């Protein structure tokens, strides 16, 4: 298979294209290298606010109805999301609809109208989204974790923003954030599927020509983690919800593959350490898992669980004991091989459609700064040894660096510092 096409325009926009002759669909994503962590204190929630409000009308589609009708005429799928470090507008269509898809996505990132009346209505929708997040304990306990673990940095505040700040946003705030964010050097365009490089570039050119040159806002200061312990009562809950997290490698770390495999061993499947110990042997919870959250300059290895409040302290104690066993003794060879198989399988599955290939291209370019072939990524996984995993476990699973947020019932959670020492 040919290597993906990659170029950077004179204005700084990166373009990634991977033709896939065996498919009939194509996926395109316009990625903005700015997420919630790049907001100033007065801008919290604006990256997400824009993700919503650009859909309220553009120069070519002045009303939400016209934009929705244009989306439906594509016959495929168009969506958007905002993360801590990116915002993305993407779609997947049959190949003959590619010109229309590029035009529509281009309108969203270059020509939103920010009509005052439409923004008032959409602001109410976002406030409902914030309320819904607060009502979902697994979402809220995660926000509590971010707020504590990265306290004092933009990574700490919610992507959705606060109800108080979002309530004050209108066309002026949206336009100001858009003007200094949606600029040529901040954009990455990724595409994969039934398309050809030169025709795609020709379709893209009039959109890129409209992008402002140069960039106003540079990324903020480095984010540092801090240990913390937070117990929060919630009278409306039947179960306690928990997030525990250790500092972990960033996107560029040479230990990133070992850290991912360590997460698999701890809580990545039904045979993982935590699932077997906490659910199967002890019956302490219904669900428990772990995952890695890497960013440009920091990361977290997070463990999540929910259980009856009376069992929460034992669950935490046994989780810390299992982390200590991995830190002190390492893992068995068969455990590492199972984790590698899970990682390889997930990697291959992520390559088997035009949309997943597009997401993979963009993820590598935005977060890693390089494009690695499937074979290179597989080799990185295979190269991890039991000694590597032990070394990384000893570096990461340090109780003194642990952050923990617990969302409990009306009586609270009552996790104590001594529960965190195995």
TrEMBL record:
Belongs to the peptidase M16 family. It holds the Pfam family Peptidase_M16_C. It comes from the Bacteria. It comes from Geothrix oryzae. Its cofactor is Zn(2+). InterPro entries: Metalloenz_LuxS/M16, MPP/UQCRC_Complex, Pept_M16_N, Pept_M16_Zn_BS, Peptidase_M16_C. Residues 17-161 form the Peptidase M16 N-terminal domain. PANTHER family: METALLOPROTEASE, MITOCHONDRIAL-PROCESSING PEPTIDASE SUBUNIT ALPHA. Residues 173-342 form the Peptidase M16 C-terminal domain. This is Peptidase M16.
């Amino acid at each position: 298979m040919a290597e993906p096409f990659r170029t950077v325009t004179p204005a700084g926009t990166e373009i990634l294209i991977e033709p896939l002759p065996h498919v009939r669909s194509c996926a395109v994503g316009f990625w903005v290298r700015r997420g919630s962590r790049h907001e100033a204190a007065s801008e919290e929630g604006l990256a997400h606010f824009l993700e919503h409000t650009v859909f309220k009308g553009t120069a070519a589609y002045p009303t939400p109805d016209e934009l929705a009708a244009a989306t439906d005429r594509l016959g495929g799928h168009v969506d958007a999301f905002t993360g801590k470090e990116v915002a993305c507008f993407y779609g997947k269509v049959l190949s003959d609809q590619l010109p229309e898809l590029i035009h529509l996505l281009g309108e969203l990132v270059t020509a939103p109208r920010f009509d005052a009346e439409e923004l008032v209505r959409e602001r109410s929708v976002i406030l409902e989204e914030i309320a819904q997040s607060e009502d979902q304990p697994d979402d809220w306990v995660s926000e509590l974790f971010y707020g504590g673990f990265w306290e004092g940095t933009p990574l700490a505040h919610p992507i959705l923003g606060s109800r108080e700040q979002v309530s004050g946003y209108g066309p002026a705030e949206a336009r100001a954030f858009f003007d200094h964010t949606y600029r040529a050097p901040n954009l990455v365009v990724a595409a994969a599927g039934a398309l050809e490089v030169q025709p795609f570039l020709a379709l893209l050119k009039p959109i890129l020509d409209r992008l402002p040159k140069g960039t106003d806002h540079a990324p903020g200061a480095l984010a540092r983690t801090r240990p913390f312990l937070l117990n929060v009562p919630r009278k409306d809950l039947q179960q306690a919800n928990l997030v525990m997290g250790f500092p972990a490698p960033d996107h560029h770390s040479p230990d990133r593959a070992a850290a991912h495999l360590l997460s698999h061993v701890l809580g990545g499947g039904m045979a993982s350490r935590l699932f077997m110990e906490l659910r199967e042997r002890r019956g302490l919870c219904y669900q428990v898992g772990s995952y890695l959250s890497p960013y440009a300059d920091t990361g977290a290895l997070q463990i999540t669980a929910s259980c009856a409040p009376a069992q929460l302290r034992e669950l935490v104690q046994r989780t810390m004991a299992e982390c200590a066993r991995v830190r002190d003794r390492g893992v068995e060879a068969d455990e590492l091989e199972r984790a590698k198989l899970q990682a390889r399988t997930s990697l291959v599955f992520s390559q088997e459609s035009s949309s997943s290939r597009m997401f993979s291209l963009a993820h590598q370019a935005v977060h890693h700064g390089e494009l690695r072939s499937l074979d290179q990524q597989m080799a990185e996984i295979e190269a991890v040894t039991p000694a590597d995993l032990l070394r990384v476990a000893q570096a990461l699973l340090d109780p003194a660096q642990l952050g923990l947020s617990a969302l409990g019932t009306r009586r609270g959670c009552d996790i104590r510092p001594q529960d965190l020492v195995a």
